[in-house]
Structures are given as structure tokens and as C-alpha cells.
Amino acid sequence: MTKVMIYTQNDCPPCTFVKNYLTEQNVDFEERNIANPTYRNEMIDRDAFSTPFILLDDEPMYQVDMDKLNQTLGI
To answer: Would the pTM of this model clear 0.90, i.e. be above it?
Structure first.
């Protein structure tokens, strides 16, 4: 099973879209809101500067690519 981690921020429509989509598809994910400085620093350390920033088995997805997301997760 692919481990999914999503870095998000408050009032981020794309973040909400991705979280809702994964929830509807019954995909477990860990959310890390960058309001927490530790999570913000983790994201920046991976050269990511916008949300949602997604990690699929520790592989970064810097832009939301629904085709790649669906393919990787078998949706």
C-alpha cells in the first residue's frame, strides 16, 4: 500500500479538493498542516513552496497530477 502524506494549509481550495478526493476513494493519508512550523520546515527542506505538496511513498509531487495520483494509488 502506498503511503500518502499531504502538506496543506488553511483556506487552500486545492488542498481541500485533494483531501476530499482521497477520502471519497477510501485512501488513507496523513495530513501535515504547515501552520505548524515543523511541518512547514519539512516541506521547505524538500524544495516545496506551495500546497498541496504530496508525498507518495516519500516521492514528491510538486504539482497535483491527478493521473499520476490515480495510477500510483490504483484508482
So the answer is: yes
